[in-house]
């Protein structure tokens, strides 16, 4: 197993740890960061999520630069990403930091685009590369999750809800990039409407 695949496996292993720390009724108290009191479990959750997100970035970079792309990586890397993000949003909904409708739109888009990518690969073998709107979506998604778990600590003093701002930027690019994927792949469905 090469290094990118090991990083993907580490990310998958971090997901249940992330869930357990945030969902078990653990009382590890609170910590003061930047004058804000934050539950220790949320701080640990944010750290685990950040580490997992870094492995996501690193495994893709290493795989492409060192030509270590494998079938396992093609399957497990996007799966691990979706599992991590969906888990984080479901937890954020459960603790009242993200509206359920926002999480639902994000989760539905992720599932739809994942399904579309599978159909495209099955039809012509090409993997749909992430365009700039998708990359903006991913970056704002990751950052919003971290800031929301940390109660916007770096900006709380000046009253800027950065986590929420990033969340709605993420939502916009989630919808926009999802539509873009389907528009750019419309020929896949052309035969369905011609009959």
Please explain how this structure is put together:
- By secondary structure, this protein is mostly helical.
- The chain is built from seven helices and two strands.
- A hairpin with a 2-residue loop joins strand 1 (30-33) and strand 2.
- The longest helix is centred in the first third of the chain and has 26 residues, at 40-65.
- The chain is globular.
- The mean pLDDT is 86.
The dominant shape is globular
Mean pLDDT: 86
Rg on CA atoms, Å: 18 Å
Oligomer: single chain
Strand order, largest beta sheet:
1-2
Distance from first to last alpha carbon? 46 Å
Task: Give a quick account of the main beta sheet: strands, pairing sense, barrel closure.
Answer: 2 strands, antiparallel
Number of helices: 7
Number of strands: 2
Level of helix content?
over 70%
Low-confidence stretches: none
Beta percentage is: under 5%
Give the topology string: H per helix, E per strand: HEEHHHHHH
- What structural class is derived from the secondary structure elements? mainly alpha
What keyword list fits this structure?
single chain; 195 residues; mainly alpha; two-stranded antiparallel sheet; 7 helices; globular
Secondary structure: elements and pairs:
Elements lengths: L2 H21 L6 E4 L2 E4 H26 L5 H24 L5 H25 L7 H18 L12 H23 L5 H5 L1
Antiparallel strand pairs: 1-2
Helix pairs in contact: 1-2, 1-3, 2-3, 2-5, 3-4, 3-5, 4-6, 5-6
Short description:
With 195 residues, the protein is mainly alpha-helical. It is built from seven helices and two strands, in the order αββαααααα.
């Amino acid at each position: 197993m090469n290094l990118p695949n090991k990083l993907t496996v580490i990310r998958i292993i971090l997901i249940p740890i992330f869930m357990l720390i945030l969902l078990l009724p653990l009382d590890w108290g609170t910590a003061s960061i930047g004058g804000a009191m934050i539950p220790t479990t949320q701080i640990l959750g944010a750290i685990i999520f950040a580490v997992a997100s870094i492995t996501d970035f690193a495994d893709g970079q290493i795989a492409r630069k060192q030509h270590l792309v494998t079938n396992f990586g093609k399957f497990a890397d996007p799966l691990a990403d979706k599992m991590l993000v969906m888990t984080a949003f479901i937890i954020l909904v459960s603790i009242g930091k993200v509206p359920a409708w926002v999480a639902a739109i994000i989760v539905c888009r992720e599932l739809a685009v994942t399904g579309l990518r599978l159909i495209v690969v099955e039809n012509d073998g090409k993997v749909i590369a992430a365009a700039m709107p998708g990359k903006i979506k991913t970056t704002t998604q990751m950052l919003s999750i971290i800031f929301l778990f940390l109660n916007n600590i770096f900006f709380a003093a000046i009253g800027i809800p950065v986590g929420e701002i990033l969340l709605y930027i993420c939502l916009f690019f989630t919808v926009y990039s999802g539509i873009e994927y389907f528009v750019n792949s419309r020929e896949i469905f052309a035969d369905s409407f011609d009959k």
